Amino acid sequence: xxxxxxxxxxxxxxxxxxxxxxxxxxxxxxxxxxxxxxxxxxxxxxxxxxxxxxxxxxxxxxxxxxxxxxxxxxxxxxxxxxxxxxxxxxxxxxxxxxxxxxxxxxxxxxxxxxxxxxxxxxxxxxxxxxxxxxxxxxxxxxxxxxxxxxxxxxxxxxxxxxxxxxxxxxxxxxxxxxxxxxxxxxxxxxxxxxxxxxxxxxxxxxxxxxxxxxxxxxxxxxxxxxxxxxxxxxxxxxxxxxxxxxxxxxxxxxxxxxxxxxxxxxxxxxxxxxxxxxxxxxxxxxxxxxxxxxxxxxxxxxxxxxxxxxxxxxxxxxxxxxxxxxxxxxxxxxxxxxxxxxxxxxxxxxxxxxxxxxxxxxxxxxxxxxxxxxxxxxxxxxxxxxxxxxxxxxxxxxxxxxxxxxxxxxxxxxxxxxxxxxxxxxxxxxxxxxxxxxxxxxxxxxxxxxxxxxxxxxxxxxxxxxxxxxxxxxxxxxxxxxxxxxxxxxxxxxxxxxxxxxxxxxxxxxxxxxxxxxxxxxxxxxxxxxxxxxxxxxxxxxxxxxxxxxxxxxxxxxxxxxxxxxxxxxxxxxxxxxxxxxxxxxxxxxxxxxxxxxxxxxxxxxxxxxxxxxxxxxxxxxxxxxxxxxxxxxxxxxxxxxxxxxxxxxxxxxxxxxxxxxxxxxx
Length: 667
Prior knowledge:
Number of strands: 23
CATH class of the largest domain: Alpha Beta
Structural class: alpha+beta
Strand order of the largest sheet: 17-16-15-14-18-19-20
CATH architecture of the largest domain: Roll
Shape: flat
Largest sheet: 7 strands, antiparallel
Strand content: 15-25%
Radius of gyration: 29 Å
Number of helices: 18
């Protein structure tokens, strides 16, 4: 059916999808499936605890005739598709179903506890009060809800931005996962009450150009369901804004929580509320003690040298919700599974996540501080330099390196953060998280006589105030904070003032304080590199042809020459990741053969981290070299363009574009 749906024009496909969705709602299929699910789990809960597969559930639904009912009601869909299939004359060489299947095979294990979280619409998103309803097939701004709970990630279907956004999604969250000991025992309500991990919900807005904005970041306390009658509760969750608007309401989500299988015994609301109060008090006390310690540490630091008060020593930083958290809590060893193979590849991944300074409302020109939680950063796919440095440091720690985030300044005193690794042989390497560049640090000895040749620093960093990771924090107390003369012997307390590891652990280790959110796992890219490359390339060809037409020039494309540009783009990306250049000889040889005697070849490569062809083309035209190729005049002009998209985890990608032309040289 996916193949047939592909041949429908997008607006017809979305109309069909809406019809099906409406039909399913009308028949209350969700409700009926839920009844069968509960019944099946009850019936199949045999002592040998076998797994319930999707097939079992489908079989159960078939036996009760639900699947047949749906198919009968949707009979017209198959007829439409049959007609479309015969008329689809264009064969597709690289076929990809547009809509990723919503439900992968889910093994519902009847011995495990699940939390079924449904988002049933939103209201009071007043910023979108005036927004007209989108026409079918029209591109509009959308909301997407991203969830993280106990190492599981979920994403809602995008819905058009509106005052009452039409969210209608259900997520099955496994509560009994990972560390909860005895896998053979079904967890009861009391045990679950001790699981204080919240459901982290991040709301992202995507505009018509594909640009993303972080709208809200909310930690949902789900355990109220443990005291709800029949294990079901409906709550209205008020979402607050981010950054300077963290006290302003942006809208309300209607959420329904339900336990699977049903709890045999629920708790009383007094018990759950007492637990929440105790946790809050415990966290507040830990944070208060850490604050007392940090103030004492800072007083001691200032007593070493009064000028220390101008150094960038950062112990706390505000997150997207305006909450002050110790900087060490933003970093944690993070393993990328099989998504990234090497530390350098990790650095490349972090560098292709978009860079955007935290927005400042009104004048003043000051830098609005906003260190994002990891989920908010990766779901939005862009962030400030601190977000990049925290993620890169976490990944390098995951690869077993001794990595730290450095807080300091670059040229003109601009505050900046970057990453440093300390080798076992004492080598200090700086990693620039925004570019992926690496620099070896060789300190200048200010006491050397003038004739001694000093190393010339290649890195852009000027001063350094402190370095930290998930369990260490050091303030720079050397006579000067200039990076070029800095000695990174972190064990020497006369150069670096350490903070107590115990104090850091009390507020920054996972589970120590509920204000420190657990790290989500990284997800594989959902982009298809070949399809995306083709799409951008076709759009660029159209844009070039239109641009030349406006100049009164015709355009003849040379497909062979375009294909020959591929190896160069692959070599550029390889060089960015590994610092190794390879394959240039073959590329040059192929181009020489493709360009006859008496002809001239010109090529221009350029690199982007976004997929908007129009925006990329506008940037290319600003380069005189590229403009010269695109607007090339002459005899026998042939143009070529090649796009190669390299996908990375999440929705990060590196987009390489090469424009080229060949023409007969006229003397």
